Amino acid sequence: MTSRCENQTFPLSVLLKRELASEKIEDPEIVHGQASHSKKGEDFTLLKTECQRAMGDGFTTFSVYGLFDGHNGSAAAIYTKENLLNNVLSAMPADLNRDEWIAALPRALVAGFVKTDKDFQQRAKTSGTTVTFVIIEGWVITVASVGDSRCIFESAEGGIYYLSADHRLECNEVERERITACGAEVGRLNAGGGAEIGPLRCWPGGLCLSRSIGDMDVGEFIVPVPYVKQVKLSTAGGRMIISSDGVWDALSAEEALDCCRGLPPDAAAAQIVKEAVQSKGLRDDTTCIVVDILPPEKPAAPLPPPKKPGKGMFRSMFRKKNSGSSSNDKEEYMEPDVVEELFEEGSAMLSERLVTKYPLCNMFKLFMCAICQLEMKPGEGISIHAGKSNSVKLHPWDGPFLCSSCQGKREAMEGKNHQEVTADLSPSLSQCFFIANICYRSKNY
C-alpha cells in the first residue's frame, strides 16, 4: 500500500520560497557561561555547542544545554548526562529538513527521557535526578524538564518567559491529583503527636517531586515524562537562565535577571550563584547556566531594565509573561512578535505524548519501538493506542508502536492496576509489568 504522504508533491515555486525564507535569517550567535557552588556534589551540567546534523547534501548545527540535579547520590545524574542526548537523537527520524526536525523534537524528547529512565532503572540504583534539557536550533528553543530545576528566558525587548515546569508536589496541584489517582499518598513528614513538618512528599518513598529520572524505589507513578515547551524567538535574541533549585529557592526570575544585567554570561552565572548563596546560604548544590542568544555579528549589549515587576514564580510557571508595553525601537533586529509559542505539552500520559499530528511518512518506524528503538518482528509491536476505551477500530499500521517491555513501562506509569493490564496485554507482558510493586524505602530529598 502506498501512503498518502508518498504521493504528496509541492510546486517548485513553493520549495524555492521555503529555501529562500530559510536562508534570509542567519542563525544567532550563542554565548554561554556557567557557575556552581557545591555542597553535595550532585549537580552536573552538559554544554555542547555546534553539534552537527546531516541535512540533505550538507549539515546544520544545534546547541544543547542540560542541568541534572541529582538526589540520593549522583549515579542518576551522571548516567542521564552521558546518555540522554543520544537517546533523544536516536528517536528522531532520519533525513529531515530543519522544520521537520524541529517539529519532531518534542516527541523525541519524551521518548529519550523515558528510555533513559528505563535503562537506568535496570541498574537497580535508587538515586534520581531532575533534568532541564535545552536544544537550540536556529532561533527555536525547545526545553524538556522533569523536577524543580527551571529555565527562564528574557527577550531583548524585556518580556520574561518560563520555559519549564515545576514538578514539586508543594506547588503543583495537577501532579498531586495525578499521583493520588495512581494509588499513592501525598503528605508531610509525621513528626509525632500529629505534627507534620517539611514539604509535601509522595508516599511510599518520601520524594517531594512528581517527575524525575531514576528513583526506582518510589514507584512508577514518579514519571520521567517531561514537560516540553518550544518557542521561536525574534531576531532580537535575549538571555536564557537555567538553574537548579538552589538558585530558585533564593531568587525570583526577576531578581536573577536584574542581578546580572549587563554582565557577560560567565560573570552573570557567577553573580546569580553568589546572590543565591548570600541570600539563603549554601544549603544545597547551587548551579547556574546563562546563555545569550544574539543577532549575528552584533556585539553583546546590556539588556534593558525590566518593564514591570513580576507576578511571582509559581503562579506564572505554565504561561508566558507579556511585557507591560510594546517597544517603539526601530532597530534593525526588532520584530513585533517577540516570542512565538510553537508547542507546549505537560501530560504524563505516553499515549498522548507519543502521538504526533505532523505529516511525516517516516515519523513512526513500523518495526521499531518508539521508546527504546528495539527492532521488532512484524506483529510484535503494540500500538500506543492499545487499551484506549474511546479509540476507533485500529489497523496493523496504526502507530507508533512499543515493544512489550516499554508497553509495561507505559502501563505502570499511567497507574493501571494488575487487572487492567492483564485485560489489555498478552500474558507474557503482564508477567513483566509490575515494576511498581517493589520494596520502597524513605529518603530525604
- How many helices? The count is 11
What's the overall geometry?
globular
From the helix content, strand content and strand pairing, which structural class follows?
alpha+beta
* Residues in β-strands, percent: 25-35%
Assign a percent range to the helix content: 25-40%
Q: Round the Cα radius of gyration to an integer and report it.
A: 22 Å
- Mean pLDDT reading: 79
What is the makeup of the main sheet? 7 strands, antiparallel
Unreliable segments of 5+ consecutive residues: 1-8, 309-336, 358-362, 418-445
The sequence of SSEs as H and E is HEEEHHEEEEHEEEEEHHHEEHEEHHH
Number of strands: 16
Query: How far is the first residue's CA from the last residue's CA?
Result: 54 Å
Kindly summarize this structure in a few lines.
The protein has 445 residues and is α+β, with helices and mostly antiparallel strands.
Characterization of the model:
The chain has helices at residues 12-24, 75-90, 98-121, 173-181, 245-248, 253-259, 265-280, 350-353, 404-413, 418-424, 427-431; strands at residues 29-37, 43-55, 58-71, 128-137, 140-146, 150-155, 160-162, 185-192, 195-203, 213-214, 227-233, 238-243, 286-294, 339-345, 382-383, 401-402. The protein is of the alpha+beta class and 445 residues long. A hairpin with a 2-residue loop joins β2 and β3 (58-71). The termini are far apart.
Descriptive tags:
disordered N terminus, 16 strands, seven-stranded antiparallel β-sheet, globular, 445 residues, alpha+beta, 11 helices, five-stranded antiparallel β-sheet
Which helices and strands, and how do they pair?
Blueprint: H1 12-24, E1 29-37, E2 43-55, E3 58-71, H2 75-90, H3 98-121, E4 128-137, E5 140-146, E6 150-155, E7 160-162, H4 173-181, E8 185-192, E9 195-203, E10 213-214, E11 227-233, E12 238-243, H5 245-248, H6 253-259, H7 265-280, E13 286-294, E14 339-345, H8 350-353, E15 382-383, E16 401-402, H9 404-413, H10 418-424, H11 427-431
Antiparallel strand pairs: 1-13, 2-3, 3-4, 4-5, 4-10, 5-11, 6-7, 6-12, 8-9, 11-14, 12-13, 15-16
